[in-house]
């Protein structure tokens, strides 16, 4: 068959298939154009999930008649300087959105530039352009899209329900609102409840979009390395979700869903969450535009970093350090659920006054007791141990444990006199007052009470000590009597040999063995007998997906977690007063002690004011 040139109409429809996946894509492109035009107020109106109507109005600079005619032509843009695709400082730059939308829908654009006596309007329907005509408009631009995909009915059939498409539009607007907090966004329509985000600071906008509860259960992230800056909020491990819908990433003000950043976040919470749970975060990456490529895909949702290792290490290190330095913190949701469970049946829920969230208090890492120690040979820099005060002596108290009777079914205070412990009450976890059901420690603080799960708490303490030992003393290796030879494709072997030093730090020693194989000479002794061939194959797959050599570290961490679980204080053990207080002091000095190795909370804190409202005293 002879080669022929495609018509402009077909070319536009092909381009539209890449740029306009669904109504939410149209909203995203139009709002980004408004932001690039310097708008301070953006209004979005939809109907029928965006299939029937999408209207985006802004108060930006507007366009002249000449600019308006060029705006609906393919590859016409005002956002590139001297065709430099490496210096992109705007959200849009490809010049494909408006002509692509006009090729598959009824598009009308009205705009007024400050130098024009009146506005101008132009229309495009299924690729057919009408001449501009005068329009009544005070300032800015109004873009209206009707009957989306009427020119491509096959694509229309694949869209979801009106409700699902309206939800996708809401998510797109929320992400853009998070990225640009100073801009006012409003979202209305017959297919939705109205949303309005007034201009605010970043912290206020996060509270508006994600919710006050998230801000109250998150810690601030501020870090910079070699010109790459990371900021935002990371949720406590105990404030987790069943999906990734509350994970927001932004690169130079652009919402992205990048595999590298998602993988880095997973690594940061690696031993703090169960595999089926996901953290909630709002993280902003800012760097020189020349160091990131946003021209990977027409939707601009994927990016490529010039130095991906630097960005990944920054995300993992900053989040892990912040989580470790936060000390023991309980989620506010845990206290709320506890109070709800204690509330008498039929009683109305108490109205809790708003308390300002403390998640944005700054932390000086130089004076923090949890500052990172110097790198240790053989240690994983992403899981570097944190320097902390020496444990309070709970391990010594444990040595004197005797076998006690089975736990009783009642809940009573400890028989031993606990004393006043006034000084301990001023500490974060307070002074132990009782042990209930030989499982839970009740402590009194200056302004409330703390309930501690003794097994979950001690499990975290033991686990952190095991990790520290692994990092400081190195991983013991087991030399194989006969090296294991593993056959792999040459590209996988190349990846493994490039990371041979890192693998050796985790106890796995590999060497080249001919053109299509590697020889494994040593394995981590902590693992015992393992499937070496399966492990090396999995490592090669990990490296191909930019997960780095984490599988060995994951398995070591899993074994350490298992040892911690089986070696910790069991539920049903009665503890002495000194043992309970020693456990509380160790928790205060141990990073990540707010949750066990499986992501469950180790304690719940109830403020005295909440308890007083529960009993109607306030």
TrEMBL record:
Pfam families documented for this protein: DNA_mis_repair, HATPase_c_3, MutL_C
Family annotation (PROSITE patterns): DNA_MISMATCH_REPAIR_1
Source taxon at top rank: Bacteria
SUPFAM superfamilies: ATPase domain of HSP90 chaperone/DNA topoisomerase II/histidine kinase, DNA mismatch repair protein MutL, Ribosomal protein S5 domain 2-like
Classification via InterPro entries: DNA_mismatch_repair_CS (IPR014762), DNA_mismatch_repair_MutL (IPR020667), DNA_mismatch_S5_2-like (IPR013507), HATPase_C_sf (IPR036890), MutL/Mlh/PMS (IPR002099), MutL/Mlh/Pms-like (IPR038973), MutL_C (IPR014790), MutL_C_dimsub (IPR042120)
Residue ranges annotated for the MutL C-terminal dimerisation domain, each copy included: 432-575
Residue ranges of domain DNA mismatch repair protein S5 in the record: 206-324
The entry's keywords: DNA damage, DNA repair
Chain intervals for the UniProt region annotation (Disordered): 341-363
Coiled coil (residue ranges): none
Function as written in the Swiss-Prot or TrEMBL entry: This protein is involved in the repair of mismatches in DNA. It is required for dam-dependent methyl-directed DNA mismatch repair. May act as a 'molecular matchmaker', a protein that promotes the formation of a stable complex between two or more DNA-binding proteins in an ATP-dependent manner without itself being part of a final effector complex.
Family: Belongs to the DNA mismatch repair MutL/HexB family.
Protein name: DNA mismatch repair protein MutL
Organism of derivation: Rhodobium gokarnense
């Amino acid at each position: 068959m002879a080669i022929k040139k495609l018509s402009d109409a077909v070319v536009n429809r092909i381009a539209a298939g890449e740029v306009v996946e669904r109504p939410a894509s149209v909203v995203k492109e139009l709002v980004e154009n408004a932001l690039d035009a310097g708008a301070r107020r953006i209004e979005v109106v939809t109907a029928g999930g965006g299939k029937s109507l999408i209207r985006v109005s802004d108060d930006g600079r507007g366009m002249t008649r000449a600019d308006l005619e060029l705006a609906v032509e393919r590859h016409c843009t005002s956002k590139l300087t001297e065709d430099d695709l490496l210096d992109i400082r705007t959200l849009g730059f490809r010049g494909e959105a408006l002509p692509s939308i006009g090729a598959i829908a009824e598009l009308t654009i009205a705009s007024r530039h400050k130098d024009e006596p009146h506005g101008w309007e132009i229309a495009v329907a299924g690729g057919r352009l009408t001449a501009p005509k005068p329009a009544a408009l005070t300032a800015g631009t109004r873009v209206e899209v009707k009957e989306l995909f009427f020119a491509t009915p096959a694509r229309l059939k694949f869209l979801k329900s009106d409700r699902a498409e309206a939800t996708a539009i809401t998510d797109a607007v929320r992400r853009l609102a998070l990225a640009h907090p100073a801009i006012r966004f409003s979202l209305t329509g017959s297919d939705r409840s109205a949303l309005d985000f007034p201009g605010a600071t970043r912290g206020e906008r996060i509270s508006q979009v994600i919710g006050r509860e998230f801000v109250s259960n998150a810690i601030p992230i501020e870090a910079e390395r070699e010109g790459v800056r990371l900021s935002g909020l990371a949720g406590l491990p105990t404030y987790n979700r069943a999906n990734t819908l509350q994970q927001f990433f932004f690169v130079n003000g652009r919402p992205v869903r990048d595999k590298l950043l998602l993988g880095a976040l997973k690594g940061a919470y690696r031993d703090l969450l169960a595999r089926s749970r996901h953290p909630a975060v709002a993280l902003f990456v800012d760097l020189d535009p020349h160091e990131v490529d946003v021209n990977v895909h027409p939707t601009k949702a994927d990016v490529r970093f010039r130095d991906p290792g630097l960005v990944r290490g920054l995300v993992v290190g900053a989040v892990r350090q912040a989580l470790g330095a936060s000390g023991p913190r309980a989620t506010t949701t845990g206290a709320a659920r506890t109070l709800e469970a204690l509330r008498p049946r039929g009683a109305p829920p108490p109205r809790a006054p708003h308390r300002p969230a403390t998640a944005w208090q700054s932390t000086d890492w130089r004076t923090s007791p949890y500052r990172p120690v110097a790198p240790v040979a053989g240690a994983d820099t992403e899981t570097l141990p944190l320097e902390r005060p020496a444990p309070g002596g709970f391990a010594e108290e444990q040595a004197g444990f005797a076998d006690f009777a089975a736990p009783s079914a009642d809940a009573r205070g400890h028989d031993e006199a606990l004393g006043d412990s006034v000084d301990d009450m001023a500490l974060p976890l307070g002074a132990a007052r009782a042990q209930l059901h030989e499982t839970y420690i009740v402590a009194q603080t200056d302004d409330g009470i703390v309930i501690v799960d003794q097994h979950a708490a001690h499990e975290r303490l033991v686990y952190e000590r095991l990790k520290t030992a692994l990092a400081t003393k190195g991983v013991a290796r087991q030399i194989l009597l006969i090296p294991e030879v593993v056959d792999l494709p040459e590209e996988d072997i190349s990846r493994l040999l490039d990371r041979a030093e890192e693998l050796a730090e985790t106890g796995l020693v590999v060497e080249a063995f001919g053109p299509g194989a590697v020889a494994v000479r040593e394995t981590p002794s902590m693992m015992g007998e393992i499937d070496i061939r399966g492990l090396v194959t999995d490592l090669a797959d990990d490296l191909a997906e930019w997960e780095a050599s984490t599988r060995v570290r994951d398995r070591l961490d899993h074994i350490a977690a298992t040892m911690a679980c089986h070696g910790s204080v069991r539920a049903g053990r009665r503890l002495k007063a000194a043992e309970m207080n020693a456990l509380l002091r160790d928790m205060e000095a141990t990073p990540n002690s707010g949750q066990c190795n499986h992501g469950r909370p180790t304690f719940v804190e109830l403020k005295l004011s909440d308890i007083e409202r529960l009993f109607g005293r306030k």
